[in-house]
Write a structure and sequence with these properties.
Strand order of the largest sheet: 1-2
Order of helices and strands: HHHHEEHHHEEHHHH
Structural class: mainly alpha
Distance between the termini: 81 Å
Radius of gyration: 27 Å
Oligomer: single chain
Largest sheet: 2 strands, antiparallel
Helix content: over 70%
Length: about 375
């Protein structure tokens, strides 16, 4: 999901008219946060660069995972690599498909002096067109899929680390593919709910993207839908946190007790690598997705209660910030597999160990010099 990078935010905090007497006189200027000077600066260059970088990073990560899958196809790591490849592929699709629609709207806004086609007379259109509905559905689908996949990967590793025999008996290729299909179907089912009357998709400020209706005209069905979306996403993150915590504690205990032999130590090394990668995915997801989920839920709740209008520009700014951070998640995920590999981790560990030993030797040398100086002083005093 490529969203608005580098959008002029000069209209975020437009002041409201002080009284009802001069509303008519100031109406063309106020409420038109999409004035011509702001919209005309919208350029697709920066979003295009961001989209290109995201595609490159995801393709590189996908190649790394494909090569690793060939080497570990018959081992316990194969299931993890298969799910990770599906996660990166989903991130790639979620970066290209919605990103192309957003770039199209940016280009239309740059060519048209009145702004993007979703803006009419300085206001967002109340009735979204087909492309907006499709973009809103993509935002929800490609938002939930990576979080569900991250949760499934964390659960699979938790079972593999804590109950390896049960994992070998329950986790098969067929069941993994079935679970993957169920994840995609669940995310698709949630994304299609507005087409069956639960919630609605609409244009969002600054008119270049679409999402759940959380700002103006929010109804009870919209509130239920955004609560369902945010609840599923946050629950996935929380469940992944629990599973990763159990996996980490299990690995630490096994290392402290030194129960593993050399072969099992190699397996534990692979387990550690996978858990470290899962923690990286989880941290990136928490940081990138929590703002949009929380801001969307708060905005919908306040809009439904009728208390959002005095601060609507602030919440528009928060939503734009949230969707930008959510977009970064699809750029950060590939770097988890690029950087947090066992070879890279070993280099980091060796460098850290070398620096620690060097620092320790310097401290010991300093202590020896101090003790030698004190001994020399005592000897001189005795003489």
């Amino acid at each position: 999901m490529l969203a608005m990078q580098r959008n002029n935010t000069s209209g975020f905090f437009a002041s409201s008219p002080p009284s009802n007497h001069n509303v008519m006189a100031k109406e063309p200027a106020v409420g038109s946060v999409f004035d011509n000077t702001t919209v005309s600066t919208n350029s697709p260059t920066v979003p295009g660069i961001t989209m290109t970088l995201g595609i490159i990073f995801n393709v590189v990560a996908l190649l790394i995972l494909a090569n690793a899958y060939k080497r570990f196809r018959r081992r316990s790591k194969a299931t993890f690599l298969f799910l990770a490849s599906c996660l990166v592929s989903t991130d790639l699709a979620g970066h290209v498909i919605p990103g192309a629609l957003v770039l199209r709207r940016y280009s239309a806004g740059a060519v048209n002096s009145n702004g993007p086609p979703s803006i009419s007379g300085g206001e967002l259109k109340s009735d979204p067109d087909g492309s907006c509905l499709f973009l809103g559905g993509c935002m929800v689908f490609f938002g939930l899929c990576p979080l569900f996949l991250g949760c499934a990967m964390a659960a699979e590793r938790c079972l593999g680390v804590s109950r390896p025999l049960l994992h070998a008996r329950l986790v098969t290729t067929a069941r993994t593919k079935m679970a993957l299909a169920l994840i995609w179907l669940l995310a698709l089912g949630v994304a299609l709910l507005p087409f069956f009357g639960l919630g609605a998709y609409t244009y969002q400020y600054p008119g270049t993207w679409c999402f759940i209706r959380v700002m103006e005209g929010t109804r009870a069905t919209d509130l239920v839908f955004v609560a369902l979306f945010s609840g599923l996403a946050l629950s996935s993150l929380a469940f992944a946190f629990v599973c990763n915590t159990i996996s980490g504690i299990t690995l630490v205990r096994a290392r402290l007790k030194k129960k593993s032999c050399s072969q099992r130590g190699s397996a534990r090394s692979h387990d550690t690598e996978m858990v470290v990668q899962l923690v990286g995915i989880m941290v990136a997801s928490w940081i990138c997705w929590s703002p949009l989920l929380v801001f969307g839920l708060i905005s919908a709740t306040r809009s439904y209660r009728g208390s959002l209008h005095p601060n609507i520009d602030t919440y528009r700014a928060l939503m734009v910030t949230g969707v930008r951070m959510a977009t970064c998640n699809q750029i950060l995920d590939p770097w988890v597999y690029i950087l947090l590999r066992r070879a890279i981790l070993r280099k980091i560990y060796s460098i850290t160990k070398r620096q620690a030993s060097l620092r320790g030797s310097m401290i010991r040398s300093f202590r020896w010099e101090v003790s030698s100086l004190q001994t020399s002083e005592k000897h001189n005093v005795k003489i």
